[in-house]
Amino acid sequence: MAKLSVLDKTGKKVSDIELADSIFAIEPNTSAMHLAVVNYLANQRQGTQSTLTRSEVSGGGKKPWRQKGTGRARQGSTRAPQWYHGGIALGPKPREYGFSINKKVRRLAMKSALSSKVAADEMIVLDSLDMDAIKTKEIVAVLGAINAGKKTLIVLPEKNDVVYKSARNIAGVKTTLVNTLNVYDILNCDSIVVLKDAAAKIEEVYA
């Protein structure tokens, strides 16, 4: 079992926690993680870009000049792609970029990402993050006390608006829930701060 120290908000060790090797101590599969990241980024794309083809640009109904005898190249419309104000040839049109990956691959990628963070000593387990009021300074103090990285991902077991609103204005800090945790966010941070209850939920979901 992978063993990590559980810290309080002041950075002091309060206990130890044993994490399942099947989730937090596997050999990371880089191919699965790469596919999961590409999948996540592709699914974020709106795909609403659009350009006008020659049939959609207004004007151009009249032939600019006669076919022969002018010495100029033959032209059929002033809205062909080579003309100023002409249509775009082979331009982008609205499309769906998203795709799906197998459930087993998604789970393997998540376990690999978590295991890579544990192996690199970039995962911090926090006892609790209870706050009475929305205070950004308090979150900054906690992250400083536990030596969190510049880019930090805070994983909460359940929705907590006080913590979310306190952390959302800190550059490089992002909060997420166990059920919305993804491989991209895990790999894109310097430190992942997981609450003790959230670690238990992760084990419950991915066991």
List the keywords.
alpha/beta, 6 strands, 15% strand, elongated
Fraction of helical residues: 25-40%
Instruction: Please describe the biggest sheet, giving its number of strands, its sense, and whether it closes into a barrel.
Output: 6 strands, mixed
Strand order of the largest sheet: 2-1-3-6-4-5
Structure class: alpha/beta
What's the quaternary structure here?
A: single chain
Determine the mean pLDDT.
93
Gyration radius over CA: 27 Å
Low-confidence stretches: none
Sketch the topology as an H/E string, one letter per element: EEHHHEHEHEHEH
How would the blueprint of this fold be written?
Layout: E1 2-7, E2 13-19, H1 21-24, H2 30-44, H3 103-119, E3 123-126, H4 136-145, E4 152-156, H5 161-167, E5 173-177, H6 183-187, E6 191-195, H7 196-206
Textual characterization of the structure:
- The structure is a single chain.
- This protein has 207 residues and is an alpha/beta fold.
- It has helices spanning 21-24, 30-44, 103-119, 136-145, 161-167, 183-187, 196-206; strands at residues 2-7, 13-19, 123-126, 152-156, 173-177, 191-195.
- It is built from seven helices and six strands.
- It has a six-stranded mixed beta sheet, sandwiched between helices.
